[in-house]
Design a protein that fits this description.
Blueprint: E1 8-13, H1 17-33, E2 41-46, H2 52-63, E3 67-75, H3 81-100, E4 104-111, H4 114-121, H5 128-140
Parallel strand pairs: 1-2, 1-3, 3-4
Length: 142
């Protein structure tokens, strides 16, 4: 399939807004640079990472995208909440993609410190948004 015909949904939590928005902008820019038309891109906002699986499921059932990119930023704190959020979000997204046969790119940065998250999100750093967009295009074309 030509990239211009790909329908891709991006889900972005409101939590860790600044880093999340940079991650989103890099993801979006890469999709557009690779020929995906803006009219075929859909952004859905959710409160946090734990809401990603249900949002992905609803989007897939309603809009039938070729791929979903679930973005987010989870930074370890002083409690084990981090472990639950990361594990359950990953498991939930995996369950949805296998159940509904639609690729979901796990674009959630799971970091020890805010500095790590900023490095991974930045276009001057590891630019994981670019990687997530490229993975979505690849998976959608399988």
């Amino acid at each position: 399939m030509e990239n211009k015909n790909l329908k891709i949904a991006i889900i972005l939590p409101c939590f860790s807004e600044e880093i999340g928005l940079e991650l989103y902008e890099n993801t979006l820019g890469t999709l557009i640079d690779n020929g995906v038309q803006t009219k075929n891109l859909k952004l859905v906002r959710v409160p946090g990472a734990l809401e990603l699986p249900l949002a992905a499921q609803k989007i897939i059932m309603k809009s039938k995208p070729h791929a979903v990119i679930a973005l987010g930023v989870v930074i370890r704190g002083d409690t084990n909440h981090y472990d639950y959020v990361c594990g359950e979000t990953f498991r939930g997204l995996m369950d949805v993609q296998l159940k509904l046969n639609t690729p979901i790119i796990f674009g959630v940065l799971t970091c020890e410190k805010e500095k790590q998250a900023k490095l991974r999100a930045s276009s001057k750093g590891l630019n994981k948004g670019k990687s997530f967009a490229e993975a979505a295009i690849m998976q959608a074309n399988i």
